[in-house]
Amino acid sequence: MANDLDHRRIERELLDNLPPDDPRAVGSRRDLAWINALMFQSAIMASLLKANVRKSPTRFLEIGSGDGAFMLSVAKRLARRWTDVDLVMLDQFNLISDKRFADFSALGWRIETVTDDVFEWIERPRAGTFDVVSANLFLHHFSDAALKRLFLALRPLAPVFLATEPSRNAIALRACSLLHVIGANEVTLHDAPASVRAGFAGHELSSLWSPDFRRQCAERRIGPFTHAFLAVDRASEGLP
What we know:
CATH superfamily: Vaccinia Virus protein VP39
Strand order of the largest sheet: 3-2-1-4-5-7-6
Oligomer: single chain
Mean pLDDT: 92
Low-confidence stretches: none
Helix content: 25-40%
Number of helices: 9
Largest sheet: 7 strands, mixed
Number of strands: 7
Order of helices and strands: HHEHEHEHEHEHHHEE
Radius of gyration: 17 Å
CATH topology: Rossmann fold
CATH class: Alpha Beta
Structural class: alpha/beta
């Protein structure tokens, strides 16, 4: 098993092939909320944001936002110190419900949804930038070549980029076999180990970020399941 994890292996995940309203997709997104909780993903992301974005951002971009459940959990952890935030949520499908909009609004966060291909949208000329860009369980879907392209497009968008991804290790892979305990459906039982095999280890993401003397890149495993990556402008007040 360990040898199988020496290098990334990207497989097409079942959820990516299902219509958003397919009951299996709905169930898998519900499972994903549980998985994020079990991985402490929102706590990890909130901690990274607090450490690397010292001032409350006015413009925040999340790529691969899904149904917004993850970012709402993060926002609840940050709401006391981060107010008056404009959050742009980018995904290939618009899955943000009216209830989700209301929940963000109650925290003082204004939401804009963008339904588009991440590469096409980020590479499109536009006015304005962001204070921070984040991604959760998103980068592992792409090949190294695609990630290089994505990172190149992200560089001018914001001084801070943060990502929380699957850690590619044997413990995480074994844990996937226990997901039936939480009632995970067949889509999740397939996609979870696929995500681990496509995940990251060591300094793989840093090596894909083109050399830039203005940026400090760092990455590390946090706990048994999470691989965190950051690229922070050295001149940014967010740099610890």
